[in-house]
Automatic annotation (TrEMBL), chain A:
Residues 254-449 form the HD-GYP domain. This is HD domain-containing protein. The lineage of its organism: Bacteria, Bacillati, Actinomycetota, Actinomycetes, Streptosporangiales. Keywords: Membrane, Transmembrane, Transmembrane helix. Residues 366-391 are annotated as: Disordered. The keyword Cytoplasm does not apply. The chain crosses the membrane at residues 21-42, 48-65, 72-89, 109-130, 142-159, 165-188, 232-248.
From TrEMBL, chain B:
It comes from Actinomadura soli. Keywords: Membrane, Transmembrane, Transmembrane helix. Signal peptide: none annotated. InterPro entries: HD/PDEase_dom, HD_GYP_dom. Residues 415-454 are annotated as: Disordered. This is HD-GYP domain-containing protein. Residues 426-435, 442-454 have a biased composition (Basic and acidic residues). SUPFAM superfamilies: HD-domain/PDEase-like. It comes from the Bacteria. Residues 223-418 form the HD-GYP domain. The chain crosses the membrane at residues 6-24, 65-88, 100-120, 140-162, 174-195, 201-217.
Amino acid sequence: MSGHGRARERAAWQTIDSGQLLLIATAGLFVVVAIAHVAAVGLRQPNIAIIFGVLIALGELFRMVMPGNREVAPIASAGAMGYALLVGVGPEGAPPDARLGVVAADHSALQVVAVTAVGMLIGSLPHIAVGRSPRPDAMARRLFNVAVVALCFRPVLSFDLPWQLVLAVMGVVVIASCFTDVLIAAVIRAEAVRARFGIALRDEAEAKMALCAATSATAMLIAVATTAMGEAALLIFTVPILVTQFAFRRYAGIRATYLQTVRALSRVTEVGGYVETGHSRRVSQLAVAMGRELGMSEEELLELEYAALMHDIGQLSLGDPIPGGATVLASPAEQRRIAELGAEVIKQTGVLDRVAHIVQLSSHPYRTGREARADDPSGDSAGADRPVPPPLAGRIIKVANAYDDLVGDSSDRDRGAAVLERLRLDSAAEYDPTVVEALSRVVDRRPRQ
Amino acid sequence: MRGLPLAAWAYVCGVVALAAGLIATSSFADIDWDQLAVLALLFLICDSAPARLNVARARVSMSFAASLASVVLLGPSGAALLGFCAVVTGQRFFAPVKRVFNGGQLALCGFIAGTVFELLGGDRFHPEQARWVENVIGPFLGALVTFVLVNLTLMGGVLLLARQATPRELLHESGRLAVGCLGYGMVGLLIAGLWPRVGPFAAVLVLLPLLIARWAMDQAYVQQQAHAATLAALCQAVETKDYYTRGHSERVSRGSVMIAQEIGMRADRVEAIRYAGMLHDVGKLGVPTKVLQKNGPMTEEEFAAIQLHPMRGLEIVREIGFLDEALAGIMHHHEKMNGRGYPMGLAGDEIPEFARVIAVADAFDSMTSTRSYRPARSVDEAVAELRRCMGDHFDPEIVEAFLRALDRDPWVPPDPVVLPDDDVVETTRQDHDDPSAPLRVAGDEVRPSDEVRR
C-alpha cells in the first residue's frame, strides 16, 4: 500500500504498476521481434517507410498533455495508423494491370511496428535532451495500438478483397482500435490513480473519444490519399490533424491555466493570514483522494477540487481572521456564514454554480435534522422537516477540512489517528461515516515519515 | 434589410442578374449531376452550421470546402450552380434578399474561380494520374485566392453600399476572414483529390477531424470565458473588504488594455496585461488591515509592509502559467522612472513595459475614485496630475498613449462610494496608489520620492 505513496522519491521507472509493466513488456517484445524481422528480410519500399517514420517522429515531437495528465500524440498516431492501413503507394510507375492502378504497398505488419518504434524513439530524443522524462506507459500504449491495427489489417490485404470492402475493413479496424485504446488506458488509469475500473473507463471514453475519432479519420485519410496519389499527398492530407492538434492543445492549455489560477488564488486566504499555509491545497488533495475512493467521476472530481480549494474564500469578507484560521473551531453559525459568503463569491463567476452550491453546503452537518435547520433562515418549512444530507462533495470537504484544521501539516501519525478517532465519534451527526472511512483509507496509504 | 439604399438594391440586383445570366448561358453537358447533388448536400450541411469567428457580421463556414471541391471536380458552370444553392441555406434569420444575394455572389465566385482554374491548366489532370498533387496545386491556389478575393469584394461592396461598414473596418475584418476562408478552401482540394476513390466518404474523412477541431475550439473558448470570469470574481473578493477600492482591479485592467492597444501591443500581450492589471494588487491582502486603516503618518515598518505588497502578489500568482511579462508587471507596478519606487528601485527603461503601463492606469483610477480622505477628482484634474508626474514617476510615452486612448474612448469613473449606515464599517485611510497624496511616514518630513517635485 505505502509503495504507491512513496512514489515521489522514486525514479520514474520504479513507479510503474503491474498492468503498465505488462503493457510495456508486450510493446517491447513487439519492437524486438519487429526489428529483428526487418533486419532479417530488409526494409520494403524504404522511401515510403522513411517518409512515414519522419511524420511519426515529428508527431512525437509535438505530443501534448490533455486534461487529466493524459499524454497524446495525435499526429504520430494518425501517421503510424495510416502507415498500417496503407494499401498502395500511388499510381506512379504502376504496371497497367495493377489493382486500383497503383503500386501495392507490400510492407508487413512487423515493419509497421519497427518504423513506428524508431520514429517514436527519434521524436522523443529532443524531449529527453531538454530534460523531460518520457512516459513509457503512454508510448507503449500508442505503439501497442498501432501494432494491433497493423496485425489486424495487413493480413487482410493478401485476400485481394474489392476496394469497397477494404475500406469497410479499414473503418472497422480503426473503430476497434479506438475502443482498445480506451480500454487499455482505463486499466492503467484505474491502477495508477486508484479509481474504480468502470468509472475510469467512462472517464477515458469521455476524455478520449473526440480525439480518437479525429485521429482515426485522419489515419484513413492518410492511407487512402497516399494510396491514390502517392507520397506527395501525405504533406497536404495531414492538415486536418494539424488543425485538430492545434485546437486541442489550446483547449488543454486553457484548462491547465484555469486550474492553476484557482489553485494560486485560493492562496490569498493564506497570504491574508486567514488560514494556515498550505491549508487549501492540502484539503483539496485529501478531498480529491477521498472522492476517488468513493467513486466520483473525473468531472465531479474537478468540481470537488475547485470547491475544496475555494472553500475558505468566504473568510475574505470577514473583517479579521478567525484565530488560528481553523473554521472547525468556529461556531456552526459562523461556519455557515463563511460558507455562504464563499458561495456568494464563487457565484459571481457565473460559471461555477455547482461549485458554489458545494461550498455553500460544505458547512452543513451530515444529518440536517430539525434543530440543525432551526437557525437557517433560508430553509423553508417544508424542507425543514425532511433531513436532506448535503451533496457528497460537500460532505467530503467538511471532513477533509476538519481533518486538516486539526492535524495541519504535521505528519505525526498518532495525531492523525487521534483526529480520525474524534471525527469517527462525531460521525453520523456531524460527518458522514462512509466519508470518514474513506478518509481513514486515504490517510493510511500516505507515506510514513 | 428594410430601408436599403437604392444603390445597394441596384448592386444586389446586378450581382444576381449577372450570376443568373452566367448560369443560363453556360453548358451543362459534361456535368456529373450525381456528384453535384452530393456536393450540394454537403455544401448545405456545412453552410447551415457555420463556424463562429470573432467577427461580428461575417461568418466563415466550411461550405467553402465544398465550393472549392466543386471548382476542381465540376468546373466553372458546376461551381456556379453549387454556389447558387446558398439560396436555400438552412441558416435561419436570413432575409430573402440576403439569401438571393448570397446565392448570386457565391455563384459568381464559383464561376470565376473555376475559369481561373481552367486557364491555369488545372483541369488537364485527373486525381488518379501520377503526380496529381504536384501538378494541380498551383492552379488550385490560383483558383482559391480568386474565389476568396471575389467573395470578399462582393460582400464588402454590399456592406459599403448599405452603409453598414466603413472601408477601414472592412479592410480590418477582411484580413482576418481571408485566413479562415483560405484554410477551409484548402480542404476543398483534399475532398476533390479523394473523390474519385471513395466518393462522398472523402468529405466525412476530411471534415470529421475539422468538426472535432471546431468543437475543441468552442470548448477552449468557453473555458477561456470561464477563466476570465473566475479571475474577475476572485479579484473582486480580494477587494471586497475595502469599500473604497471596489472595482479598482477591473478598472486598472481596462485602463491597461486601453494603453496596450494604443501602443500597438500584440493580441496575446494585451490579453496578458488584462490579467496582470486585474491581479496587480492581489498582494495587498498580505498588508495587515490595521496599516491600511491607519489615520496619520505610518511607521517605517508599516510603510515597509505596504512596499512588500507587489512581492506578495507575485508570490501568489507565480504558479499561474502566465507570460513572464505579466509577473514582471505585477511585481514592478510601483517603480518610478526616477528610480525611487519600490520594491527594487528600478529606473527608466529597466522597468518592464507592463509595469509602466499598469502604473499609469493604477494611479489614474486611484485619483478618479473617491477616497476616505478626499472626494474623487475629475478626469481633467487626474490628467493634469499624470502630466505633472510624467518623466519623474510615469513613462511619458505611456501617459501620452493613455491620453490619446482617453480621447477616443472616454473613461467612466466609478460611482461615488456610499458607505453602509452602521458604524462598524472600517475604511482605509491610506491609498498607496494615489500619486497626489503620497503616504506619510513618521520621521520623514517629505518622502524622498517627492522632494524632486515639491
